[in-house]
Amino acid sequence: MKRFLAHTNFLIFLVSAFVFLNHAGAQDLHFSQYFNAPLLTNPANTGFEPDADWRAGINYRNQWSGILDNPYKTMSAWGDAQLFNNRFENGWMGAGLVLLKDVAGSGNLSSTKVYGSVAYHQLIGYNSLLSGGFGIGVVNKSIDVTKLTFNSQWNGKFFDITIPSNEVFSSSSVWYADLNAGLNYAIFPTDNSYINAGISVDHINMPTESFFSNKEADTRVPMRFNVFVNGSFKLNDLWIINPNIYFSTMSNSTEIVGGMNAHYNLSGDGNTQLIGGLYYRMKDAFIPMVGFTISSVSATISYDATTSTLGSSTQTLGAYELSITKVGLFSEYGKNVKCPSVKF
Predict the structure, then answer these.
(1) I need a labelling partner for 329 at 20 to 30 A (CA). Which of 18, 48, 190, 281 fits?
(2) pLDDT for 108-165, tens place per residue?
(3) Confidence of residue 310 (pLDDT cuts 50, 70, 90)
(4) What CATH number is associated with residue 35?
């Protein structure tokens, strides 16, 4: 009974945090398949893979190609591994690395980020796990000002780039350090069910980001708060369903994504699986997803079908994403799994 109350109190805390952040109300880089970009979602996810010693993945997103000559393109490569698994009886550490690249617009506004993260995972009793993680990164933002035009360059018929823009850029490239941290809590009520909830904060140090020398304007990157709840439930030997919800807020921008994906056991032993799912980003898009798993490799592709007012310009075509992940073991003899996992 005490254990149940402890779990209940923790979930109440997460819901309260969710409501608080929703009222708190600059959009950061993001993926619709946030659950396939675990280190970007929360540094406490680093090394959290019960059935494997390491994992690696790539993500690619192409957004608004229907209305932009140079659409947003976001690319990510990441990897993490468990450390000291044999030194801690009831826990382990994780270390990870993320490379992130984003390019958009006629000025080739480019963002390059490199993050390293560490986390510690501690078993609590027989069926729950508490994780804490911290990340630090280096960020570069750059822009090609020669490809930009401004209102002052309009000559009455067209934009004339020979006319001075009167815009004073102090630099076309800026660098800064970035910090993030997070907590996760996982509970395994039965061998066939699993719930994981987490909260994280990005840009804790609120670094300055500006191509101008104006010292009066506040050019600090605001903190970004993220909350997620994932579930995994094995219905039978053929089906596993995974409901997910994700909430993020940064300055005046808010993102809420919710839905579910399901895995169908094609081979009987779980080695080959078919993946299908549907998600919804509130006031923005429906996101169908399909994919497959073969052995240790999973690949999924999703599409953002715009439902907002922007849909009339994009013909409901918003963005597509591709995610590929692979997991592995350091030893051919397998590993001792310290916490349960839902699998075929």
Answers:
(1) 190
(2) 788 999 999 999 999 998 889 999 999 999 999 988 877 776 777 677 777 766 677 7
(3) low
(4) 2.40.160.40
How does pLDDT run across 148-157, given as a tens digit for each residue?
A: 767 776 777 7
Is residue 216 included in any domain, yes or no?
yes
| Domain residue limits at 313 | 2-328
Instruction: Establish if 339 belongs to a structural domain.
Output: no
What contacts 14, CB < 8 A, 6 or more positions away? Answer: 185, 197, 199, 227, 229
Question: Mind spelling out the 3-state secondary structure of 156-217?
Answer: CCCECCCCCCCCCECCCEEEEEEEEEEEEEEECCCCCEEEEEEEEEECCCCCECCCECCCCC
Q: Rounded to whole angstroms, how far apart are CA atoms 254 and 99?
A: 24
Q: Is residue 338 assigned to a domain?
A: no
* 38 Cβ contact list (under 8 Å, min separation 6): 45, 46, 48, 78, 80
DSSP-derived 3-state class of residue 125: coil
Question: What would the 3-class secondary structure string for 204-270 be?
Answer: CCCCECCCECCCCCCCECCCEEEEEEEEEEECCCCEEEEEEEEEEEECCEEEEEEEEEEEEECCCCC
In a domain, 62, yes or no: yes
100/82 Cα distance (integer angstroms): 22
